[in-house]
Amino acid sequence: MGQNILLVGPPGAGKGTQAKILAEQLKIPQLSTGDILRANKAAGKLTPELTKAMDNGGLVPDEVVIDLIVDRMQQPDALNGALFDGFPRTVVQAEALKAMLGKRGKRIDVAIAIEVDPALLIERTVLRRTDKRTGQIYHLKYNPPPPDAELVHRADDTEVAVKKRLDAYARDTSAVIPFYEKEGVLKRVDGVGDVGEVTKRIFAALGV
After folding, report:
1. Can you tell me whether residue 152 is helix, strand or coil?
2. Quick check: is 129 catalytic?
3. This prediction's pTM
4. Does residue 88 have a cis bond before it (omega within 30 degrees)?
């Protein structure tokens, strides 16, 4: 039986990188609202207002994100557990997710809070690049890409946009952590160190 696991943390904490590793090793799908939103944006399915908000580092309204997650969770690969990456971003979304899972007799089994000193987050994010061929995420300083990588720099990874995302995280998303603490499923993990070290800490928190 698969587990429903949630990763929460500020922008640049490494949620996306760790989510890919965990999803592969645990054999559950990664549900990333960021990926889902970008795919819908690329397909022209988002309004100009939503596209502009994303490019400027703003948060997409709860009702839009919840609708996308509901649609994704109805696909067969997500029926036996999933890894939630970038969702919920607000307590309203956390309540909605709890209700959605409750209808299936399920819940979030573990919520992993990846913690990183805010001073490191802007550098981590602004220098992040993605290989458009493979989806692999690199960092120009800490995890340089190979010479043949076809790199793209996300429009929302500029310093101005990152600062806005950090402000939005402090204002809206950080409240998700005490929500899951009250649910009794929160585990805190130090997100500073190389990718492998952080992965080991997460698996230790999961008891795997």
Report:
1. strand
2. no
3. 0.75
4. yes
